[in-house]
Structure formats: C-alpha cells, structure tokens
Design goal:
Coagulation Factor XIII, Chain A, domain 1; 10 helices; 6-stranded mixed β-sheet
Length: 442
Amino acid sequence: MSSDVVIKVENLSKCYQIYENPSDRLKQMFFNGEKRYKEFWALKDASFEIKRGETVGIIGRNGSGKSTLLQMICGTVTPTTGVVSTQGRLSALLELGAGFNPEFSGRENVILNAEILGFPKSEIQSRMGEILEFSELGSFLDQPVKTYSSGMYSRLAFSIAIHVDPEILIVDEALAVGDARFVAKCMRRIKEIQSNGTTILFVSHDVSSVRTLCERAIWLDKGRLIEYGDTFPVTGRYMEYLFKDEESEEEQLHRQIESINSKNLSFGNDLLSEDTDLTLDPKNSNFSLDARPVTHWGSCKGIIRSATVLDINGEKKDLHPWGESLVVNIELDIPLHISREHLSVAFSIKDLKGTDLIVSTTHDFEEKKFPGGSKFSIKFEFTNCLTTGKYLLVAAVENRQHNDIHYYEYFEGAHYFASLSEQRFFGIFQPEIAQRIEVLND
C-alpha cells in the first residue's frame, strides 16, 4: 500500500446467514449438505482508496451498507471476502455504546478505550481534564455509563475519539443524537482535526454536512458501491436518485449508473478552479443555461429555457457587486397539461460546496397566479448580501401538491457567478445593518 494511501479496500464483501428458525442454525452445523439459510449481502465487492488527509463522506439510505463497511474498516466485523488495510491510529464513533462496558464508569471507559487503541494509560490520564471539559459530563464521568442517556453516550464517545491523536477518524451518525449546541461544537472540532491532516470518514444522512466537510464522497446502495468521486456531483446525483418517483428503484439505479459511466460529469472544471476569471463578458445578455451543470434531472426536462442572475438593468453578469440589487430570472415553457394549481417555481443560490445560501419559491408567496399560456418568466428581486466569493444558481420547477415535492425539472448550476465587495467582510452574508449607541442610566 502506498504511503499516501491510509485506507485501502479491495473487493470487500460481507454476507450474513439469515435463518427463519433458531433450530435451523443448529441443524446447519451438523448437516452441511442442505442450506437452511438465506444469504444477505450487506456489502458486495466494494473497492476504493483513501489518501492521507482526505475527508470522505459516505452516503446512502438506511440498509445500504454504510455501517457494515465502517465496522470492517475498524476491524470489529470480519469480511466474508476481500481485504481492508489501514495505516495509522484509528479512532471511531460507531453506534452508541460501541466499545463501552456499561458497568464501568465514564472515566474507566475512557481508559479502557484508550488502551484498546494503543494509547498510553499515563497519557490519557493526563488528558482526562480536557476530556471532561469537552464532554461536559461533570460528575457523571464517575457514574456507570449504563445510567447515561444517548446524548451523554455521544458526548463521551466523541470526547475520547478526538483526544487520542487519531490519524484516521471515523464518525458514523454518532452526532445525530446530540443537542444542537454540542453538535456545532463537535463540527468545529472536526474541522480543527481536519486542518491538522487527519484522515476522516464521515457518515451522515445530512447531505449539506457532507458537502460542507468532505472533498470526496462514497455512495452506497443495497450493499453496492454506486459512485466514488468529488463530493458535489456525487451528492447531486444521489439527491436526484432520492427525489425520483416515476420509476422503480431498480430502473432508477440502473439509469443512474449508466449516466455516471457515460458522462462522468466534471462539475464545470474551469469554472470552479481557484483562478477562474468570472468577469469575462460582463455585458452578455444571451440568457441561457450553463452547458455544464452539476446535476440536471426531472420528469419533464426542458421546460426551463434559461435561468440567470441579472443586475437591476436586466443585464446578465458573472460578477455582481455587494449591496446592489439582483434579479434571478427564470424563463419557462411549461406544457399546458401540467396543472398550475400546485405548480411552484424555485431558485437557490449555493456556494461551491453545494450549501443552500438563499432559497425562494413562488409557493411561499400569496400571489402566485401563473399566466394562461405555456411561455412565461419569473423574476425574484433582492439585494446582494453575499460576501466576496463564487456561487452558483439552481432553478427548479416543482409540484407542491403533497409534502414530498415532485420535481418536473431541477437544474443545479444554471449560472456560475461571483460576488465582490470592496470592504472586507466576515462570514457569508453581510446585509446592510443600522446601529445606534445609547447611554444607559445607572
């Protein structure tokens, strides 16, 4: 294994034997001729490499094999076939309570887990104060962990994992049970660990978190590795798959795999490079859709004719100053057989990691009567409060009849543009803010 590769998975599979009756298991031990069980492949022939310092997200629906994969990487589950190799100290947050002795106190479990990881006992005892402070368990650290709530389990597990100097950190949905403040604290610490060059495997159902933290993503479905690549396009195609409802799951997945293999979308390579010049042709008024979207899907593709970010004069520009008025213009050609009753037109502005920053839809407004004809445009006007950076526009046409949104068309990456402010701002948004100073009476 190359020194740059810290996790290598080769043709990894895990098969479980499912017995209908407990007695069938006993019969199988003594009578091998007849198979009395059904095979369930939790993971099948997965292969990939993760390099030192990479942060990789693992996405997929429940039952896709994410936890099984992580358990085999950690060594807590033995593969049926294939090989997994790791280099460096590995620390993992798997299912709640994994590796804990419920009769031991939190403090004793800290020492136990550290020793399992090969971390010196004297070293972990010297860090006990830091672990206690981060976990915020107080006197509960000396109570048996069987008395802990799920949130307390999560706090202790995360605190141990980050204080044993891991070279590989694995997080499997363990933060989902924490309160919002502690989750934010953990995410901030993960970013610190990330900046120190630690390799991170991060499992989450929250695609926004994966896009925020990870450079690359692995998509699993029913034990199969569907795609491994740059986070934004992989998560985009995964979201497309989740929102599809016109085909069977097998048809969807087959079509997705064919699309991935044939197109191998590059996510607008030159548009997203660090030295891209987004000021080219600022007066261009040829409204259109970008030829290199991140994702483009829907049950009625082609009804979005153009989607662009304009200035207040109606000119399409790729560079917009902070504080000026912006207009998102979406031109449509919607067949008359599509009912207007539950029709909604939406836009989103995202950063280049795919995080939604500004979202609006006609569904949110009381006045949303559409013209009688098929061709019309929707304009959303607002003040540009985006700080200096690069962004992209998403346009979508939706059916809002039910809670689960149906997408007639979803175009992610319709227009790539930049925002520029002369002042130095912190954060992502900087609205115009008024202030006043008042003298308080004693």
